[in-house]
Description:
The structure holds two protein chains of two kinds.
Chain A: H1 16-39, H2 56-63, H3 65-98, H4 104-110, H5 113-116, H6 119-132, H7 146-169, H8 173-181, H9 186-214, H10 218-223, H11 231-241, H12 245-276
Helix pairs in contact in A: 2-12, 3-7, 3-9, 3-11, 7-9, 8-9, 9-12
Chain B: E1 6-17, E2 20-31, E3 35-39, H1 46-54, E4 61-66, E5 69-70, E6 81-84, H2 96-102, H3 111-124, H4 140-152, E7 158-162, H5 170-187, E8 190-195, H6 198-204, E9 207-212, E10 215-220, H7 222-227, H8 232-237, E11 242-251, E12 256-260, E13 265-269, E14 280-285, E15 291-294, E16 311-323, E17 327-334, E18 339-345, E19 360-366, E20 371-373
Parallel strand pairs in B: 3-8, 3-9, 6-7, 7-8
Antiparallel strand pairs in B: 1-2, 1-4, 4-5, 9-10, 11-12, 11-14, 12-13, 14-20, 15-19, 16-17, 16-19, 17-18
Helix pairs in contact in B: 2-4, 3-4
Amino acid sequence: MANKHPRAPLDYLNMPAMKAWLAGVFIFLYTPLLILILFSFNDSKANIVWKGFTLKWYVKAFENTQLREALLNSLLIAGVCTIISVVLGALMAFVFWRFKFPFKGPLESGMSLPIVVPEICFGVAVLMFFAKLNFPNDLPYPFNLTQIILAHVTFAFPFVAIVVRARLEGFNQELEAAALDLGATPYQAFRDVIIPHMKPGLIAGALLAFTLSLDDFVITFFASGPGTITFPVKVYSMVRFSVTPEVNAASTIIIVITVIATVLALRAQSATSAKAN
Amino acid sequence: MSDRDTIIRVEEVTKRYGKVTAVDRVTLEIPRGEFFALLGPSGCGKTTLLRMLAGFEMPTEGKIFIDGVDMSSIPPNKRPVNMVFQSYAVFPHMTVFENVAYGLKFDNVPKSEQYGRVMAALADVKLDHLAERKPDQMSGGQRQRVALARALVKKPKVLLLDEPLSALDAKLREAMRFELAELQDKVGITFVMVTHDQDEALAMACRCAVMDRGKLMQTATPSNLYEFPANKFVADFIGSVNLFEGTLQVDLPDHAIVHSEELGGQIYFDHGVSGASGEKMWVGIRPEKIELLKREEGSNPPTPEDAPPGCNVAAGTIRQISYLGSESIYEIDLINDRRMQVSRPNLSRWDQEDFTWGDDVWLRWHGDSPVLLQS
Lengths: 277, 375
């Protein structure tokens, strides 16, 4: 088909080559995932040839008590980690945004340290930390997950802080002054004006914290005790024997959970940011 | 206290930020029910003074009384004043109704009464039909009305307005001037407005305080500011003025004469001025108070000494003309290279054709037109 519209200099997507490149990127990104999902429905023990549709691997994964336990652990850890990370991250962002204090610059740069330090180093550090602390690892469920939750919070809350900090940068300080002027106490002004402004940042940060915690393997591996296993760690141990479609099925479930969470969070975020602007 | 009671009293207030003095020993009284303007160039301290009235800044020295109460230890949320912010600061996540109702919850207004008061405030600013709108669906002018209603619904003793018209476009700004003045008349609340726009201040305020570099220069009615400025700064800041340096030579009860090297002669005043003879002074003449007359080519330029009785005369050449429709402004080069500005109303549709670039002209102004400024 002839292109009737002349191309403007910045109208890149109108170039066939560019479209092909874009398609290539998407194929490269999503093919492995699609294959993983597809073969979770394959009626064969080997992950190689398509033999027919079945749901038996999902049934099998569901009947695998250890896998189910690991999934529940992961969701619980991710949930608690998200709540703590959002509170800590938001407070940290607020403090750096609002106040001036000595060593603020270095401290603010240090905020992103847990993000840039290689996970493996972080994992070892966490292991040594808990060992030095003689942290009890025989607590009853669900308190035996404390170490993992603490480890996850350490690397997840800086993400929340960075997102919320960026959001606060665009805050019109006169809004807070207006609330005070209308009779609100400083706390009421914070609750009624600043928190609603932070909300899209809080949601995005929560989503980040949740997914980071849910799929973390390296740090969890070092922080987990004998009786505690998370989903990624369990999948890893299953794959060590053989990659069965059961693993595919379990992974598909995680993908679905993550996608749903992302869609909900994005939707909430776009709704609030449309109002906020 | 006088029969018109005072709502705001500012006593010797100074505000310093480190070594910078933003407000320098300002003393001010604003009577109840007045539309008062704080006027000055940016950085003159007017906004700092307004923020001290609202309670967002505390004076370094001096005291502020609102309705007789010392405000020193009273935070913004406990003061009987409300503010319309420069950015309007309308809460984006609330509807118009919620915005206006926000301040009422802190006044313990019963829920049943809130609805009526919010709608009445919205009606005052002609927004009652948009109560359920979100701010992002409104124009700048409408958002400003929300900010006004939100402040007025609390029935404050004083309404503070920070550059209320600066963000509006020219046409709307002019309409809002009248509307704000009318609204003030209707609600009867004292308005204190900060502005850098002299037209705005002159058009709306009962009285204006002109500030410069933290100091109060003059407080007066708009016409007194314009016709009887207290000093060079006020004369120059309010409107346009031709300023000449000179020395007082004759100072009698019925007339005075100032010798001005700059103007190349003497300036006659048809009234006495009180000032020490021989002192250095300035004479200010407004452009519209000078008459522009054609001068015959080749005729001898007159000196100020040959002016008709009671008048002053100068000769020059038209250098620049700016035609503004209702009037034209002429830049005149005087014989001694001094430049002078004269404005002339275009009363008939052909008036602007009377003069053109390079014309030799006479300037004539009456002895009661110039003002003598001592500082």
